[in-house]
Amino acid sequence: MSRDPLGFLTSLHQQHGSFVFVHSGLRRLYLAIEPELVREVLVTEGLKFGKSRGLEMTKRLLGNGLLTAGRELHLRQRRLVQPAFAKNRLAGYARVILDTTREHLGRWRHGQFLDLSAEMMAITLDIITRTMFGDSIGDRTPLVAEAMHDSLASFNVGMIPLMPVMQYLPIEANRKFWRGRRQLDSIIYDLIQQRRHSGDQGDFLSMLLMATDNGVPMSDEQLRDECMTIFLAGHETTANALSWTLALLAQHPEWLERARQEIKQHGAEDFSRLEECRWITQEAMRLYPPAWVIARMAREPVTIGGEALDKGSVVIMSSAIAHRQAQYFPEPEAFQPERWRNVDHLPRFAYFPFGGGNRVCIGEHFARMEATLVLAAVLENWDYRMLDRMPAAHAGITLRPVGGLPVQLYSAKG
Ligand code: HEM
User: Fold this and answer.
1) β-strand 314-318 against 27-32: which pairing, if any?
2) Does 265 have pLDDT greater than 90?
């Protein structure tokens, strides 16, 4: 399981079906794949489940933001944070997404070799930094990137079972983590102070600062936790979605061409008109869902799929496995964006790259728009040749392409 979690879960599913019980040490562990089971865990019986312990590590960096908050705090915070993601804010964010992407693309050169996956990471981190803090971040964007990099470096160490002890040892990864965390904290607290009284600037931070619960605003610490959470949850996932999309398009030149035609016809600016580009990203997230696994722990005894689960049982739901079921997605291994033309027949939880229920991804619309616009901006100007075969997937916290995505770039404008 720890060496190849996705391979292990896939073989469990293939050998034992859609609802599998595994004895794993002291815990009772279930793997749930059928849409109806996923719906029961995330929605119908959702309140009987909490997030599983795996998240405790993430709390070291995120504190008690939306992703990690317990039930009561989550309920309040979700109400406070939601307006930052309202539909009427999206147009402003679209501008930031396109400007930021084009700035990065402007540094690319015809004939250059680069790792598209690293580029996507840099672009999405820059986008989230600017949508969060607007202009007030000034020239501190590279500092944020470096601090983020340092604090995330320890998360690989964080996946190993000894971690509860490891986190206190003076090893390099921990030193980096604390250095990165201190750096990020100081930037975020500084910006919160600067901005407390500056009104709506159109960015996430404005909305978080204006949000009140019965007239009471968030504390600085809660604000910091929400900012950090949006930072972390809001860039690596989208970067991976984009990397897989670009890798798949390189294998399917007919779709690359269709996307180009659509962009030529409608421009890269208007998300709502880029229908085929949307299908393409959606199909890429079917085959390679960046958040490939979601886990929940029963807070009380609960019945799922007719089976009685004890308190403390853990249910794992993997979109990476669920999305490849032939009864919902004919020829499931094939990249066929066209299948998204009509999805009326699809049960709600046959496809869940953004989770579901009360903890569904708050950034879903933002991420869909971002992935489509960044893709359109790239294809509008650049062509690329992959230097290796289709990368294998590494199933860590997110589903990443092993070895990145080395390419050679060509200007698409000749
Ligand atoms: C393709 C990109 C993305 C994917 C695949 C994705 C996926 C997910 C998934 C599956 C969850 C639910 C986790 C669970 O139930 O345990 C989640 C939660 C969350 N996501 Fe995303 N996400 C993406 C982009 C974003 C972006 C762009 C943001 C912010 C700008 C964001 C912010 C969050 C937050 C704050 C949560 C916690 C929500 C809560 O518990 O109330 N995500 N995401």
Assistant:
1) parallel
2) yes
Q: Is 298 within the bounds of a domain?
A: no
- Ligand 1 surroundings by CB, under 6 angstroms: 66-67, 78, 229-230, 233-234, 237-238, 241, 290-291, 294, 353-355, 359, 361-363, 366-367, 371
Closest atom, ligand 1, to C-alpha of 356 = 15
Tokens at 125, concatenated = 């981190």
Number of independent structural domains in the chain = 1
Rounded Cα gap, residues 85 and 365, in angstroms: 8
Taking CA atoms only, the protein residue closest to ligand 1 atom 21 is 361
Q: Are strands 216-217 and 314-318 parallel, antiparallel or unpaired?
A: unpaired
**CATH assignment at residue 75:** 1.10.630.10
Give residue 265's domain range: 63-291+353-411
Q: How many CA atoms lie within 13 A of 299 on its CB side?
A: 10
pLDDT tens profile 20-63: 877 766 678 899 999 999 999 999 999 999 987 766 667 888 89
Residue-wise pLDDT for 336-394, tens only, equals 999 999 999 999 999 999 999 999 999 999 999 999 999 999 999 999 999 999 999 99
Confidence class for position 168, pLDDT limits 50, 70, 90: low
- Tell me how far apart the alpha carbons of residues 32 and 26 are, in angstroms, rounded to a whole number: 19
Using most ligand atoms within 8 A of CB, pick from 76, 361, 372, 375 the residue to mutate for ligand 1.
361
Helix and strand element counts for the chain (H, E): 16, 14
Q: Is residue 366 part of a domain?
A: yes
**DSSP helix/strand/coil, 387:** coil
**Residue among 143, 161, 131, 135 nearest 234 (CA):** 131
